[in-house]
Amino acid sequence: MNTHQILLQLKVTRRRNVLLKNEILLMPLEWGYNEENGPEKWQHSYPEAAGARQSPIDIRAVDLQAFNTNRKLSWNYVPENTKEVSNPGYCWKVSVDGTGSNLSGGPLDGTYVLEQFHCHWGQTNEEGSEHTVNGEKYAGELHLVHWNSSKYSSFAEAAKYPDGLAVLGVFLKVIAPKIPIVPVLIGTLWLRQVGRKHLELDKIVCQLNKVQFRGEHAKILVPLDPGALLPENSGYYTYSGSLTTPPCSECVVWIVFKDPVEISQEQLDTFRALRCYSSEDLCPCDEYKGFVKSNFRPTLPLGQREVKECRQ
């Protein structure tokens, strides 16, 4: 085989590998949120989804215990380390270079490093959060996912242990105005804006048109501070639970902030415009017409677990 033939063979092999990689990455999701592959079906493929320490839960006042600690929950995030936003087919997700972005204190033993954050929402503003409080639902819920770097060497290793991950949950709310909505001129269009736009979150929203389809990625063009996505009041609930998406591993220390943050209707509608299929696939004939209209898991029994309240 001469040099030209060798180079040609290498080119063909590389092309085949790229196609195979793309095929693997964009295989139909084994799970989702429609009637065929929704949360009630997950346990058939992911047995841990039927476990006794599953999330989310309804946080009820009658179950709360006071959490008294002199270790204040604290975080330090590096805005420049939020690298890109992607569409994995069921939400938007921001990947983070966790170096220097840490969470500690409160119910946590050790330091937890930020890995990624993502969002859940519903078809309407009356649902979408995964956790609920005394049965009350919010329009959405942000999850900031951290792993225990004090005990484990990687996110994958940490996800195997009950204290491996720590997730901050932040409720999202669109507040309807109490006075008539004043039209806003945007370009040549008059729009009626509902709710207050979240400026830090908008750094993600403005990139979502580049990740409309599953498998697409886009760079975050400006520094994005995850800490600016958290509510001003740092009071929270905490309990031991699981990932809310498959494999639903029971490895999470949950910290759910009591106060929601406000976003605009326009921002929430942009979330709902994402698609669960790739640009090369046919639109699935599901009840959502291929859009990620709803991506929250319903609440599950608390069982014998404790939920603690910190008024930090």
Protein described:
There is one protein chain. The protein has helices at residues 3-25, 42-45, 155-158, 202-205, 265-272; strands at residues 58-59, 64-66, 74-76, 82-86, 93-96, 102-104, 112-121, 132-133, 140-148, 165-173, 183-186, 189-192, 217-219, 236-241, 252-257, 261-262, 307-310. Strands 2, 3, 4, 5, 6, 7, 9, 10, 13, 14, 15, 16 and 17 form a 13-stranded mixed beta sheet that branches. A two-stranded parallel ribbon has the order 1-8. Strands 11-12 form a two-stranded antiparallel ribbon. Helix content is 14%, strand content 25%. The protein has one domain: Alpha carbonic anhydrase (Carbonic Anhydrase II), CATH 3.10.200. Strand 11 and strand 12 (189-192) form a beta hairpin. With 312 residues, it is an alpha+beta fold. It catalyses: hydrogencarbonate + H(+) = CO2 + H2O. One of its GO terms (molecular function) is carbonate dehydratase activity. Belongs to the alpha-carbonic anhydrase family. Its EC number is 4.2.1.1. Its cofactor is Zn(2+).
Topology of helices and strands:
Blueprint: H1 3-25, H2 42-45, E1 58-59, E2 64-66, E3 74-76, E4 82-86, E5 93-96, E6 102-104, E7 112-121, E8 132-133, E9 140-148, H3 155-158, E10 165-173, E11 183-186, E12 189-192, H4 202-205, E13 217-219, E14 236-241, E15 252-257, E16 261-262, H5 265-272, E17 307-310
Parallel strand pairs: 1-8, 2-17, 10-15, 10-16
Antiparallel strand pairs: 3-6, 4-5, 4-13, 5-7, 6-7, 7-9, 9-10, 11-12, 14-15, 14-17
Alpha-carbon Rg, integer: 21 Å
Q: In which range does the helix fraction lie?
A: 10-25%
Q: Largest sheet, described in full? A: 13 strands, mixed
- Give the number of domains: 1
Strand content: 25-35%
Count of runs of 4 or more consecutive helical residues: 5
Helix/strand structural class: alpha+beta
* SSE string, helices as H and strands as E: HHEEEEEEEEEHEEEHEEEEHE
State the low-pLDDT regions, or none: 12-26
N- and C-termini, Cα separation? 72 Å
Per the CATH scheme, the topology name is Carbonic Anhydrase II
